[in-house]
Please model this.
Amino acid sequence: MDKIIVLSAIIILPLLPSVIIYKLFGQLNKARSTGKKYGIAFTLGGPIAAYFIIFVTAFYFYQNIPNELEPLSLELQKKESIAKKVIGTWDANCVYILPDGSKMAATSEISITKGEFDIYVNGVYKTGEFKGHWKARKVFLDHKQLSYVFDVPAATPGRSALGLAVLDFVEDSKKEKVTQMIGNFGVIGSNITGQAEFKRLQ
Model:
């Protein structure tokens, strides 16, 4: 589509000054062809010659300039296709492994959405009697993994920490979307780690 637009501009834009020149100096136009045994020879003059020169020059550059938009377009299509696999609502079961070796279970309902350029991950989690909201600051997505840096709310108001989660897709070849993700997470700057299992709700 981009090439068609550029080619159309190359053909149409040089016509504008040529038409203006024709209106002013129409009598100077000359176009004549003489037949030969194996081809045709052209003799051009005036505005039509100017148009022909501009057109040939522009077309030459068009043929020799690489299409830089095509790789970008393909990359965006690829990311769009991957994003569709994980967008939706998920139920997460997590197990925190604390520094003393004890474990703490947590559940979370997670929403994964897509903006114009970015993926957003956020949710509500519950650990015992404590319930809090969290969101990812930065999301990384490829065809096998979903990774994100997220805010970990603390039980004490005003305190929080950063965590890093890496989840592998458990793909079903019969389904277009990923229905399960399994991985690990950790709280940055501490010895708290954990395991997480995501299951698609919708």
Q: What stands out?
A: Residues 2-65 form one domain.
